[in-house]
Amino acid sequence: MDKKELDRMASYIKEKRKAYGYTQEQMAEQLDMSYSYYTKIENGFQMPSFGKLIKIVSLLHLSLDKLIFGKDMSEQPFSPDTQELLQFIKQYDKKDIVLCRDLLNKIISYLD
Length: 112
Prior knowledge:
By secondary structure, the protein is mostly helical.
């Protein structure tokens, strides 16, 4: 990721953080990272690890593709594997999906 893309991503994170009313300190605490590490991310000096990126996306309810690529990639067709997964997920109600998401977030947090 080049500096321009990193700056765009950092700006988007900052914009969404402010929209949710979080301070940088609150974000760092929620993401289980130091304040200085978080500010480096938000100021475009540090690319977060994938695990931390997933936590940021989850906390701020961001679109990962928009955060990384600067646009929604949803217009592109899904791969057959992704389409199959989506069909499987559609069988469940939102409450079950949220429980699964929360479980996956906990698993991800152990990988960091």
